[in-house]
Design brief:
The complex is a heterodimer of chains A (779) and B (162). Chain A is built from 20 helices and 32 strands. With 779 residues, chain A is of the alpha+beta class. Chain A folds into three domains: 193 residues, Aldehyde oxidase/xanthine dehydrogenase, molybdopterin binding domain (Aldehyde Oxidoreductase, domain 4, 2-Layer Sandwich); 150 residues, Aldehyde oxidase/xanthine dehydrogenase, molybdopterin binding domain (Aldehyde Oxidoreductase, domain 4); 325 residues, Aldehyde Oxidoreductase, domain 4 (2-Layer Sandwich), CATH 3.30.365.10. In chain A, strands 1, 2, 3, 4, 5, 6 and 10 form a seven-stranded mixed beta sheet that branches. In chain A, strands 13-14-11-21-18-19-20 form a seven-stranded mixed beta sheet, with helices on both faces. Chain A has a five-stranded mixed beta sheet with strand order 25-24-23-16-32. Chain A starts with 9 loop residues before the first strand and ends in a 30-residue tail after the last strand. Chain B folds into two domains: 77 residues, Ubiquitin-like (UB roll) (Roll); 82 residues, DNA polymerase, domain 1 (Orthogonal Bundle). Chain B is an alpha+beta fold. In chain B, helix 3 packs across helix 5 and helix 4 crosses helix 5. The chains are: A alpha+beta (779), B alpha+beta (162). The complex binds FE2/S2 (inorganic) cluster (2 copies). One FE2/S2 (inorganic) cluster sits at the interface of chains B and A.
């Protein structure tokens, strides 16, 4: 981008007769044929504190969102809004929509400042923009927090320019004009001009720096009001396009035959000519991840993959199983250091967490067209710049010869932070010399896809004279792969981090930036140690928090029990932040905490603070045998049932309450699955799970009949993150209810991990056959 | 190569493809009808759920050669036309009204399943019960289940009126 960036400044300004002070920001009017305005993406970011006091944990004062937002500073770049002649506003958003609703909430923010109906704001996903560097990363629930102010500044500036242009046309001054729903009006004369009429006359020939004030929060008409998703119609009519729905010329269906073991690699294909003769098959190629086949239909790819005879190299986890990984974790646990004395009472909680799959319902898929002199990629990607770099390197092309289109994804949950699918598709396209539409088989996902690492979490609390004097948590995990960019952000901002982080590795730093024990428990330490990775891991929705919160909240219930205090009362008395107290009180009241329940049914409650907001969850869990043993057919995991869930969230400023409620409900379903049903089993380097009848993500029969979401307004004027906020709290509340209903704390989560409730599917060939009885099962 | 003929969203279609290719791929890869989604390919996730002669079924598990020429296949793209009056099917309207979709990937299958469920209940002449939700096997990895329940209740009422 040629536009020079100018140091951003803000100044206080007298505004209007009331003399209300409003911060003013600098924005840019860009040269263009219709009005185009821009703002610096780093606007309005809070600065990191120079040093942190010893008492609060690092994430109390500077958390993952600050880190990501600060990463913008040295590489600040412009985001721009264009007003078109048809009266619509267009914004190309350097983030990924994966279902979390950021397109809708961003359109709402623009509509608010611009006085334009939300429907007339078009937000599209920007292709990889290398000049944005790591400013184009969607993760850690950071999107709205980091883009809120810059987007507002650009939109407010557009309105200001439209007013100025209208004033000239209408022969008046801008302060006599008003804007309503995309029209500038002169209330005195009744004359008006639509934004479309003004789009050209408001345009500038040259780049100008202009000062603008934002609309005061009290005047908000769109922000904070429920709004349905802009793509709702497309989603229910089948018109919404995901990667494999795109029609790219000659990009034929392509799949990969993969090793039986996790991350095993191919030696060679033994029956290449037989495969090439199969119906529909056009190309076969060996790539580092397996043997790729391209055919007329995906069905014929599946047949070809199943017919392949391949010699494989063992994977790096050869010989390893759940038990050996757990043993290695135990050996790596950092010691708990607070000594127990005859005067102190100690509470110990020690739990383990199985591997879990972060796969979305849409399997990894990508379209690639790699030519000798250029490449073009279409995929759901949260860090498109890294994909672009990796593909350029693989294909031996300059980075600007690789065009990466970001496509809306069928879910991410951390999975699409990585560009595994895009890189693999590009590798195959290069090897075959033709465009390919790569899709992973479902069986590939839990077996070869990204996993949430197995972990243990130990908590020891000491009580002296009725007071909690120390709370130590030691989290030990198979290493989490952060090579998708969060790590690079850390490198690039290392110097600016608060004192105390410099000496840690990436994972430890992210751990410290996300973990925030919201209680006053004397000496609090939460530390992470990691074991070596033979596994393809990633930061699944909410990264470490669900596991850490489960262990911590279970321990808190134990402490309350030892002190003979009610769990809600105990939490309330020890919480540091009144905002957290408020959400806890909200669920306790709405969920009627402490009400009488039959034996075997119990309530559980948990709180969590992260991403500038906080949540509390209360559940009622039915662990009675008639419920636990419900038989709904084969490969249908029932077990304990949450009959009611009450969630309270204080996310800071709420942009779209309807979207926020959806994120809370969805996050709850994730937390529920993490505690009760969903996990991957490792046996001799292989993961047993291969589909949704093995990997028991929450299904309708696990869903609480009653789910309530309460949004608590604490008057905060900056938006926090919502995409992950409910996951850890929900997992912890369900775990606490389980412990209270059954009187015991499970050693391993999810609680059903010890039982394998399915017959593992074929490993050679690596994918199961497609059934043929679909007409018989019509219903 | 054999010719395959059936009725798709009200229109007769003929495709030249081997008998054993599953219908899902004939729809998606050859006919370009991409509403039915792939989520497992083995009749488990129900993302591909469509209708055959008015009943819910999973085209990932049907050989195209097993279709008769008068079999009526309806995908999400053709659902609206099966309801009286212009505009969307009442179940699609309920889905928009409840703002159900997150990523949206599972939703075509969820809606097709819901419509078939309500038709079954209408045939049995009984109202929707909480336990009927247990019969819905469709995965939603975004966890939109609560709103799916609300939308089915609303859609069922609307289907009863039309
Ligand atoms: S793709 Fe047909 S049921 Fe999963
Ligand atoms: S809305 Fe994303 S899978 Fe259902």
């Amino acid at each position: 981008m040629t536009t020079p960036t100018v140091e951003t400044t803000t100044s206080d300004h007298e505004d209007g007769p009331g003399g209300v002070e409003r911060r003013r920001f600098l924005g840019y009017v860009l040269a263009g044929t219709t009005l185009a305005v821009a703002a610096d993406l780093s606007l309005g970011t809070p600065k990191a504190m120079a040093a942190i006091p010893s008492a609060p944990q690092i994430s109390d004062v500077y958390d993952l969102e600050d880190l990501q937002t600060d990463a913008a500073l040295p590489t600040s770049a412009l985001i721009s809004i264009t007003i078109r002649e048809n009266g619509t506003a267009h914004f190309e958003f350097p983030r990924a929509e994966v279902g979390q609703g950021i397109i809708t909430s961003t359109a709402m923010i623009i509509a608010e400042e611009l006085d334009l109906p939300v429907r007339r704001v078009e937000v599209t996903l920007a292709p990889a923009r290398p000049e944005l560097l790591l400013n184009q990363l969607t993760g850690g629930s950071n999107t709205t927090f980091s883009t809120y102010t810059p987007v507002r500044v650009a939109a407010a500036l557009a309105r200001q320019q439209l007013l100025a242009a209208a004033a000239i046309e209408l022969g008046t001054t801008a302060d006599r004009l008003v804007t309503i729903a995309g029209v500038v009006r002169d209330p005195l004369t009744g004359q008006s001009r639509s934004y479309g009429d003004l789009a050209v006359s408001a345009a500038s020939q040259v780049l100008k720096t202009v000062e603008v004030a934002l609309r005061p929060e009290k005047d908000f008409k769109v922000i904070g009001k429920p709004h349905s998703r802009l793509d709702a119609h497309d989603a229910v009519t089948g018109a919404k396009r995901f990667t494999t729905d795109l029609k790219v010329p000659n990009a034929l269906p392509t799949m990969v035959c993969r090793a039986p073991q996790h991350q095993g690699t191919p030696k060679r294909l033994l029956n290449r000519s037989q495969i090439l003769r199969m119906p529909g098959v056009t190309h076969v190629a060996q790539v580092p991840t397996g043997i790729a086949v391209r055919a007329r239909t995906f069905g014929q790819c599946i047949d070809a993959v199943r017919a392949m005879r391949v010699e494989w190299n063992a994977g790096p986890a050869d010989g390893q199983s759940d038990a050996t990984v757990l043993k290695a974790l135990r050996a790596a646990e950092l010691p708990l250091v607070v000594p127990s004395t005859p005067l102190t009472q100690t509470i110990d909680v020690d739990v383990a967490f199985a591997f879990r799959s972060s796969a979305a319902l849409e399997t990894y898929s990508a379209i690639a067209d790699v030519r000798p002199d250029r490449a073009e990629i279409w995929a759901g990607l949260k860090v498109p710049i890294l994909a672009q770099q990796n593909i350029a390197q693989m294909a031996g092309l300059p980075q600007d010869k690789v065009k990466v289109h970001v496509i809306t994804s069928g879910g991410s949950f951390g999975h699409k932070l990585f560009s595994d699918h895009a890189l693999e598709a590009a590798t195959i396209s290069k090897a075959m010399g033709v465009p390919v539409k790569l899709m992973w088989h479902r069986a590939d996902e839990p077996r070869q896809g990204r996993l949430h690492p197995m972990a243990t979490s130990r908590v020891r609390a000491s009580i002296l004279a009725g007071q909690v004097v120390s709370f130590e948590q030691r989290h030990t995990s198979v290493v989490t792969d952060f090579s998708h960019g969060l790590g690079e952000i850390l490198t690039s901002t290392a110097d600016e981090l608060p004192t105390g982080l410099g000496g840690y590795g990436f994972s430890q730093s992210i751990f410290l930036l996300t973990q925030q024990l919201p209680y006053n428990f004397g000496v609090v330490t939460q530390l992470l140690n990691e074991t070596d990775g033979a596994f393809k891991t990633g930061s699944m929705r909410n990264i470490y928090s669900p596991d850490v919160a489960v262990a911590a909240e279970l321990a808190i219930d134990q402490i309350a029990k030892a002190l003979k205090v009610d769990p809600v009362e105990f939490r309330t008395a020890h919480l540091k932040d009144p905002r957290v107290v408020k959400v806890l009180e909200t669920v306790a009241k709405a969920g009627r905490w402490g009400r009488r329940l039959p034996k075997g049914v119990a309530q559980g409650v948990a709180v969590h603070k992260e991403y500038k907001g906080c949540t509390a969850v209360l559940v009622e869990l039915d662990c009675r045998p008639t419920t636990v043993n419900r038989d709904l057919g084969p490969e249908t995991v029932t077990g304990p049932r949450v009959t009611k869930a009450v969630i309270a969230v204080d996310p800071g400023l709420v942009i779209n309450p309807r979207g926020l409620e959806a994120q809370m409900q969805g996050g709850f379903m994730d937390g529920l699955a993490l505690t009760l049903t969903s996990s991957c089993h490792l046996r001799d380097g292989k993961f047993l799970e291969a589909s949704w009848d093995n990997y028991f993500y929450t299904r309708q029969w696990n869903v609480p009949p009653q789910v309530e979401v309460h949004i608590v307004d604490s008057g905060v004027t900056t938006p926090g993150g919502a995409g992950e906020a409910a996951v850890g709290t929900s997992a912890a509340a369900v775990a606490c209810a389980y412990a209270r209903a059954t009187g015991r704390i499970p050693e391993m989560f999810p609680i059903n991990h010890g039982t394998i409730s399915f017959k593992p599917k074929t490993f050679v060939p690596p994918i199961p056959p497609a059934p043929t009885n679909g007409l018989k099962t019509a219903r | 190569m054999p010719k395959q003929t059936f009725i798709l969203n009200g229109e007769k279609v003929t495709v030249t493809v081997e008998d054993d290719v599953r219908l899902l791929w004939v729809l998606r890869d050859i006919l370009g009808v991409t509403g039915p989604k792939y989520g497992c390919g083995i009749n488990v996730c129900k993302a591909c759920t469509s209708h055959i002669n008015g009943k819910a079924f999973n085209p990932c598990s049907v050989r195209v050669g097993d279709l008769q020429s008068d079999d009526e296949v309806t995908t999400i793209e053709g659902l609206a036309d099966t309801a009286p009056g212009p505009g969307l099917h009442p179940m699609q309207k309920a889905w928009i009204d409840r703002d159900v979709a997150q990523c949206g990937y599972c939703q075509p299958g969820q809606i097709m399943e819901a419509v078939a469920l309500v038709r079954r209940l209408q045939k049995e002449g009984r109202p929707l019960r909480e336990s009927d939700f247990d019969s819905i096997r469709n995965i939603c990895r975004c966890g939109t289940y609560t709103r799916i329940r609300e939308a089915i209740e609303q859609g069922a009422r609307a289907m009863g009126r039309s």
